[in-house]
Amino acid sequence: MDYGVLAFWMTALGTLCWGLCFWWMHRISSRQDTMLVELREQGRRIETLSREEHALIREVHPQVGEIKESIQAVADDVAART
After folding, report:
1. How far apart are CA 3 and CA 44, in angstroms?
2. How far apart are CA 30 and CA 25, in angstroms?
3. Which H/E stretch holds residue 30?
4. CA atoms of 7 and 17, how far apart (whole Å)
5. What is the C-alpha separation between 39 and 32, in angstroms, rounded?
6. What is the largest CA-CA distance in the chain?
7. How far is CA 72 from CA 22, 24, 57, 63, in A?
8. Residue 1: what pLDDT?
9. 3-state secondary structure (DSSP) of residue 2
10. H/E element holding 1?
């Protein structure tokens, strides 16, 4: 067998493998970019929900204190009557 022909086919095979590897890495990179975009969007949604939840808790928190005071007053009245 002629070594020149063998070298040609080995070079051609190496070039084909390089091209295949480049395409595969590009595909993986594209998927990672898509995943990062989705994660950023999810993070933004979670942050928005967290802010809304925090605002609701701030709104409800004073009412909780008032309810506890009312319950304590009722408990004191009941205790005084018995």
Report:
1. 61
2. 9
3. helix 3-81
4. 15
5. 10
6. 113
7. 72, 69, 22, 14
8. 67
9. coil
10. none
| Nearest in space to 69 (alpha carbons), one of 80, 77, 59 | 77
Q: Is the pLDDT of residue 67 over 80?
A: no
Token code pair at residue 74: 């009722």
Whole-number Å distance between alpha carbons of 6 and 12: 10
One-letter amino acid identity for 28?
I
CA distance 57 to 41: 24
For 77, phi then psi, to 5°, come to: -60, -45
**Residue 15 is encoded by which pair of tokens?**
């070039």
The structure's pTM equals 0.53
The predicted-structure confidence for 12-39, as pLDDT tens digits, reads as follows: 999 999 999 999 999 999 999 999 999 9
Alpha carbons 17 and 28: distance in angstroms, whole number:
16
